[in-house]
Amino acid sequence: MMILRISVVAIGLVMVLTQALSAGEHWSLKPRTRPAVPGIDSKWVRNPIDAFVLARMRKARLAPAAEADPATLIRRLTFDLHGLPPAPAEVTEFAAAWTQAGAKRDAVLERWVDRLLASPRYGERWGRHWLDVVRYAESEGFEYDRFRPGAWRYRDYVIKAFNDDKPFGRFLLEQLAGDESARNDHDSLIAAGFHRLGPVRRNAGNKLVAFSRNEILTERTDAIGSVFLGLTVGCARCHDHRFDEIPQKDYYRLQAYLASTREYDVVLADAQTQADWKERTTRIQTRIQQLQKQVQGKQDKATERTIAELRQTLPPALPTISTVKNHTKERTPIHVLKRGDVARKGAVVGPRPLSLFVPKDAPELPAHVINPRTQLAKWLNDPAHPLVPRVLVNRIWQGHFGTGIVATPNDFGVNGAAPSHPELLDWLANEFVHPSPPGRGAGGEGERARTMKRIHRLIVLSSTYRQASVAADEPARKRIDPQDRLLSRFPRRRLSAEELRDAMLAVAGKLNLKTGGPSVMVPVEADLVKLLYDPGQWVVTPDEKEHDRRSVYLAVKRNLQLPFAQVFDQPNAAISCPRRESSTHALQALELLNGKLSNKLADAFAARLKRECGDDRTKQVERAFLLAAGRGPTMREREVALEFLRTQPLREFAVGMFNLNAFLYVN
Amino acid sequence: MNSRVDESLRAHAQSRRSFLQSAACGIGGLALASMLHDDIARTNPLAPRLPQRPAKANAVIFLFMAGGPSHLETFDPKPLLNRLHGQPRPAEFGQANYQFIQPDARLLGSARRFRKHGQSGIDVSDLFPHTARCVDDLAVIRSCHGDSVVHSAAQYEMFTGRVQPGYPSMGSWILYGLGSESQSLPGYVVMPDPHGALEAGQPMYTNGFLPAVYQPTMFQGGDRPVRNLNLPAGVSLAQRRRTIDLIRNLNAASPDRRDEELDARIESYDLAFRMQTEAPEIFDLSRETRATLDLYGIGREPTHDYARRCLLARKLVENGVRFVTVVAGGGPGNMQWDAHADIEENHLRLAGQTDQPVAALLTDLKRRGLLESTLVLWGGEFGRSPEAQGGRGRDHHNLGFSMWLAGGGIKGGTIVGATDAIGLRAIEDRCHLRDIHTTILHQLGLDQDELSYPHLGRRERLTLVHGRVIGQIV
User: Fold this and answer.
1) What is d(CA B316, CA B323) in angstroms, rounded to the nearest whole number?
2) CA distance to partner chain A, nearest, from residue B289 (Å)
3) CB contact at 8 A, A469 and A72
4) Domain boundary among A427, A460, A494
5) Could you report the per-residue pLDDT of A84-128, keeping only the tens digit for each?
6) In this structure, is residue A443 part of a structural domain?
7) Do the chains contact at B251 and A204, CB–CB below 8 Å?
């Protein structure tokens, strides 16, 4: 709660301060500078990041915190890069290597970081950050909330892109225009499903075609603005943007890139298979509908059972890629709409970048331009683009430190927060686009340009990242930098909903690390399923081992958010979520104390302790702390735990461990 | 009397405030506290807070009539419609978009009888004999209108002020603005209809981009309606207390640096325990007198279910819950007020289930002195078409329909606005859904602009377009 509140205050203050500036002078729209790395003579400075951070700290008369101890460091790194706790053996191994290495600790750390970045767990963790930003869900929301066929493929695409360290330029191009540039490449088609991730309203009866089409175009345009440009272009849909110099016309020019973009499902099966599937499905569906008519408003358990059985006999959906393609014949003429009202059409516009970035009289592209979204991607991928690289490195920074250099990662406009370290932001963006000469064994600039693992490495190997979470002089830090914007310590954070669930599974020894494939539906309370318009949409995955898979593989249904995730601030995927809230409240306590998941896994955790430590309570306590907190218990903790275990059951001790701050937070 | 409510609210909030300030030493100096109540929110984001303006109400009960009850069969008599029955709509009334029926549909007269009730002489149809007896407490808005004619979008607008999902529900906004008065109950409760889902589903009730602490607690059926309030099988309350003590003691023994957030988390376990011990008593309706149960219609069909939930709503508000939504209608359309096929059959059935409980709730709140400070809102996401669908049904209709407000300083016995002579379009004193929102906030001492939250570069508020307070009823 506190972290959230503080950032909110920061945003508020910055809004007041910056509203006086006119947009033309706004820092984020100006070309990136080439800031010189501050020349600071300090052993603390390991790389340019540290130089920028220390310079800023010194200006504020703050000093860096001590280096974190190895147990803290390895737990921080593993959660940060994998979203999982380190295994006890890893903690021990790392701590031993660290202690032995003496002056060669940097090399030890580098080896561990490289190992962590090379693991498939990395993509599962960082892909999830991206899925938040792109409003990823697998169902369409609104009334029908149907699952998009093969929606999970986009999730796997993202995870793989992160694991493969796909250069961001390609990642961007594939998502915006994969269908245009590589029509037969499945990955590219899946990536272009980006345009279909948002909620879609479908309704029976009179369709109001133009109105619905406008809703879709609006949703897609706003997403591009938030995700890649870090601008709230949506404000300009109804009027000229009040704070950022985005005339209404510009908004519709951006929308014009999408004028002929239409939904497209690619079924990955031959014609005969498709025909058979369709025939069989229609036959069963028709029968179900007949029966449903019969039972409507009546209590007829037998027929309801028959319907349920029939549902089971429906053939599984054929493998499908849900993507888009250009239907030039169905291109929607894009007009400037007065007050955003589809009935009040103004001038027709064609695709063109925002006026902020091109000369005022730059011509629009012809409305029928071939591959319009490739053109859009080309503009966004321009190495000199002032926003795209800044926005991306800022997201990476936020992923590591909890708050970005710009605290409003989807809003680099005049209303957004001012950067805490503007030169560092530009330095990182430059380094991202034009990597400095590689060290031994790395590829040339072309291959390394816009790769993310390189940036992660720079950040997590820095002294800035290696600080303890207690400042050198806490009273001074609290007075001078209560919001931790200057990073004179490592900001502590609560685990996200997914990390928490995954960590509980891992600690209990139940985590199923299977990767990829169709999403898993876990059992949820019947009352919640009943709140679905079609309760038949929630079909619990029969294989129970699947229920213990990582959270990123659980089905994301817009109208049924898993209560566990919701309570711990998982976003609702209605719109792009740039940064998660981190709240603290009693429903979280109830979830972890009395919830089914928590209690089931506490049983497993207790069983594991018993299996691994027998009846030796001291060993059990030792092991439990190592698993859940990544360190052994202190003397006092050991005493308290043993006192409890003298009279109380081990599984209750396990419940307690899931509720400890030492488990729920990363230092 | 309104100022009395106001004073007690302030006094209560004041005492909590000073307590929290002294408890959380060393905080302060943040200038934007008035906007974000930051000093309190840091330690307990649900602590009750001073409203921004003088308040007349401190709680809201929304009796949501899902699916869209007909204004033409309830609060808006249209003799001309009966005379024009079976004819096409005369051109002078203008055009309307419907979800299903086509422009050539014929007008459908109403079979209901209207009579003037109470001292105010407001027309209420014979669907609502019980509510009619409370009519002097109601402000009937006959000129409501919204932006969507399909359920999901209209329901989002009714609850969140937007026709898309993803925005905070008014219950979440109000909890964010005022905090909760209760130490043992959730601050914002939704009691869905056990018959099933609504079109807009879960997202219409939720906190959107507000922190999860402002999310609704969705009540389940049964005696223990709050999720996770039941202890796991084989675990006693005493056992749970000992486990909570273990958590507290281990947290205290931790070598980690303490801060407000960790302290708040430790506090949250005590609140959780209080919810477990105290809330079940409040959920227990068997402590109510037979007379009260009879007043609501509990233990009898067809009223039992809605009556139970209405009585629970009273008990929640009585114990400091800020916002309660009690949904009437759920599942397939005809199980809601969504009378596409037969307006008579559908509305007689739904009114039979809800009329007595609704009136009982008003009566009960009033006799306990709670109606003064509790604002009750009744209505659906839209009304129904003057034209027939399929002969005897009515389609959705968002251009003019009725809702009512009562209590919480609302002037009873009032009619606001009017639709045209066939009930097609609101033509006098038009009240958009956002005006209803604005009026509710106003009664709670909240201002639509001040109750805002920064999100994606905007200061979002409940009302997308600026709403107005319905002046004649406040």
Assistant:
1) 9
2) 29
3) yes
4) A494
5) 999 999 999 999 999 999 889 999 999 999 999 999 999 999 999
6) yes
7) no
